[in-house]
Amino acid sequence: MSRATDRAARRAALSGSGPTSDAAPTARFPGAKSAFGLLGEVLLVGILVGLVSLPVVTLPAALAAGVRHLRRFLRAEHSGLERFWRDVRAALLGGIGIGVASLVVTAVLLLDIDLASTGVLPGGPLVGLVGWLGLAALVLVLFSAAGHWSPESGWLGAVRAVPGALRADPAGAAYLLATAAFAGIVTWQLFPLLIPALGCVALAIVAVPERPRRAHGAAQ
C-alpha cells in the first residue's frame, strides 16, 4: 500500500467511515474527534434534557434519553432528534415513577438537613451527615440508572444494574458525584448555566464508565 493510500485509510478510520485497511483500526469514539462538534452536541443535549425536565419528575427519563443520544453521537451512529424523542416516550413509562419517588426522598432529606442545621433535632450533625449521604446515594442511583436504561431492559433492569456497576467502579462513582456537585454549584451561581450543566452530566454518565483506566483494568 502506498503512503498516500495509507494516510487516506487512517483518515477514514478516524472519521468513523473506515477502516479501509487492516492497518487502520476504527476510532473508538469517532464522534468526539471534533471538539467544537462535541461541545455543540453537549449544549444541545443540555437544552433537550432541560426542556423534558420542566415537570421535574421527568428528569430521569430526560437524562436517559440524553445519555443515549450522546452515546450514539460519540459512536458516529445516526443521532437524529427523532430517536431522542422516541427514547423520551419510552423512558417516561416507569421513569415518572422514579422521578416522583426521587422527588419525595429529596424533599425528606433536605428537610432533615435543614432541621439538623437549626439545632432542633438531637444529634443534629449526625442527622445532617446522614441527609447529605442520602442525597449522594440518590444522585448515584439516578445517574447510574439513566446510563443503564434502554427500551429493552426498562427501568427495572436499569435499577437492578446499579449496585453491581457502583461496586465494580467506586472511582467512577466519585467522578459522578463530582459532576453532580459541579452542576449544582454552577447552577446555584447562575441559573442559566443549568443548561450546559445538564449536558455535562449526560456526557459524564456516558464517559466515566468508558474512561481508559477502567477499560484497561477490565481487559486485564
TrEMBL record:
Keyword set for this entry? Membrane, Transmembrane, Transmembrane helix
Q: Per the record, which residues fall in region Disordered? A: 1-26
Looking at the UniProt entry, the stretches that span the membrane are 42-67, 88-111, 123-143, 190-208
Name of the protein in question: Membrane protein YesL
Organism lineage reads as: Bacteria, Bacillati, Actinomycetota, Actinomycetes, Micrococcales
